[in-house]
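Weekly puzzle thread! Below is a chain. First person to post its structure in C-alpha cell form gets bragging rights.
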Amino acid sequence: MAAEGDDDRKMRDETPVERADRNYTELLQELRVAQTGVQILFAFLLTIPFQQRFGQMVGAGLRQEYLATLLVTTAATALLIAPVSMHRILFRQGLKPQLVTMADGFAKAGLACLALAVLLAVFLTVSVVSARDTAFWFAGGLGLLFAVTWIVIPIWLRTRD
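Winning reply:
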C-alpha cells in the first residue's frame, strides 16, 4: 500500500519545504473558520455571568455545566490559536515540517474541544429554556450530527479510494 500522500506528491511538483509551507497555509485558513466560532462562543460565555438574571436562570443546578462549558471553550481557544503562537516562536528556524505536524495535532484537539463546547452550550441553553431531558436529546442529536459530518464522512471518503 502506498504511503499517505504519495499520490499528492506525484501530482504536485513541490519540494518538501514548499509542501510544508502549503500545508501550513491551508491549516491556517481552516483555523480561521474555527477560531471565529470559538471566539464568539467564548465572548458570550464570558459576558453572561454579568447579566442580572444569570443567577436566577442558571441556578445552582446548572452552574457546573456552565463552568464545564467555559473550561472546554477556553481549551478550544488555546488549542486553535496555538499554531499561530508556535509559528511566531519557530519563525525562521527551519522547523516548518515539525510545526505543521504539531499544529495539525493542536487543530484536531481544538476542533474536538470546540464540538464539545458547542454541545455543552446547547445543553446549557436548552436546559434553561426547557427541560433537562430535552437538553439531553438536543445535545445527543447534535453530537451525532457533529460525529457524522466531522468524523465519519471524512474517514469514509479517505478510505473509499
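Puzzle host: Confirmed. Bonus trivia for everyone else. The first helix runs from residue 6 to 11.
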